[in-house]
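Below is a complete specimen:
___
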Amino acid sequence: MDITIQYTFLPHSDPDASLAFYRDVLGFEVRNDVGYDGMRWITVGPAGQPGTSVVLHPPAADPGVTEDERRTIAEMMAKGTYASIVLATTDVDGVFEQVQASGAEVAQEPIDQPYGVRDCAFRDPAGNMVRIQEPS
């Protein structure tokens, strides 16, 4: 089989803040920015990788989500336990310095993990965990 990851979805609580983080801090390209009914879906992705994108979306936009579920999603986003993404780099320490200098919330400074990577972690403006790792 020939399978690749084309899109992944991360919720946003403030589309402009999320856009600024992924575009201006991480250097992702904006691929699409669609508004509908007062909501916004923003597709971003790493430069030079047009086949891989992250869709920043309004949480609980699905009409099948109940009010109780919406509250749970909001609570989990606030704690940073609802969604996450793992990115890779060849220079985790350099990336850490740049992202930290932007004022992003640091969740973990770079450390060598026992499973063979050096990584760090941040929370994006919506609370999503963004892990960045460098293979050892």
User: Anything to note?
Assistant: The helical segments are 15-25, 67-79, 92-101. The radius of gyration is 15 Å. The longest strand covers residues 29-36. The mean pLDDT is 95.
